[in-house]
């Protein structure tokens, strides 16, 4: 390894500053490079894709083989239902790690030295995460729908993608999963600690809904529709499904698809805003 | 050019940096010295905006760091070697940071070659040795071809060849008119590299000046005299501010008098001299004497027979008392 060579003479040092400049576009490029150059990204995205496709096909198989006792027509869209719970898990890990990984390794200091105004780093990261997760989960849902039609089309188990409600619900899965990823990212930015952020977001996704429905105390049941993932998952349902849900539980509020998604987005905005304020204020 | 004015940083009740003001001039290497915990790293972190000053200001090339539109081309900083995601390769780390300023892969490859990381650039940083991490940190600092370099302990963990390379590199960069501000605990290395020194202790500036002036001011002039009439000479030299020690018969070490004065006294007293040698102090001696009251974390004295440099073993317990 030869390192005795010293930098070759370059332009005058008192030159006007170079053409290199910090910009949001450049930051996006930087975050794109960072996003794809750690192994956890590939792993979590692969797990997400496999889970979305796998559970949809498995659930369809189960539905096809289930004894048709109720006589009600089966909705092929229901086969995507498990994805509300199992789809965002790996994405939640990815979202948290994409920011806490920088804190635990010290990388954040390099990032903030490159962009000393700081908050644009947060926005660029969030945008890259959201877009990539959306594209990957939308593609996985599309593959799942195709496989469902290819394997079980003969049993009538195929979603009608020309129906705008069905299309909205399917796209809703990708929107919902990406927004959960963003929630996890925001918590990670706030807590700056991988384990704490992942534990918090998984607790909120998996344990809170069970607790709220299991504890026999009326106010909890009233609040339940406003839990982040419960509210956000409304966007994965068609208006007919939401109407049926409302009819089944007349004593609690049933949020519409976009109202529910708006509630989830509001959680993200609040946590992300808090994280941005702290990022500006705290020593890195 | 780095200018600090009344720069202060408090962590709760503890004052890490206490209203320091200094200027780091372009065109020379300025060394930043001080004991552990003196506030060196905190000061450097405030310069690049990682820590927010409790009071005071610091500007780089005329502006606060965060107000530069292309910070990496203004300032290259190595603050701690491992401010790197351990799961990423060295090359991707550099590419990601370069991308923030639209700096292309050509420059990335240049700094990789300059820092000797070529063979390991595709390896994940987590497996890097201290020295490799240090080289990567220096590569990051050089990415933007910056006008000002801030290097915290750049030679820490480097092999002798790497130490020499850093010394030549910073001198070369300073000769190009850039501002170079570096800290180090290696006094001998600092003496060879720096033109100017800022010494800090307990968050305050102890001294600020050219290296030779700092050494001259902080060390007492010593003259080595060899004479067959040593005891007679010692009597003639006796004065309140002169101390004389004798390591062997016929050999005196005179502290507090110049070699001219000793020679004149000897001539006047008709004393034969076999040797008259002025001894200049080392930077290490100067540093030890400057910072002895400012040392925060004292080492235990080494038992008799253990060898330490500059007599710190004998002096340490007294410092401890001073510090309390």
Automatic annotation (TrEMBL), chain A:
TM annotation in the entry: 42-64, 84-105, 126-153, 173-190, 197-217, 255-279
Pfam families named in the record: ABC2_membrane_4
UniProt GO MF annotations: ABC-type transporter activity
Keywords on record: Membrane, Transmembrane, Transmembrane helix
Protein name: ABC transporter permease
GO cellular component terms, semicolon-separated: plasma membrane
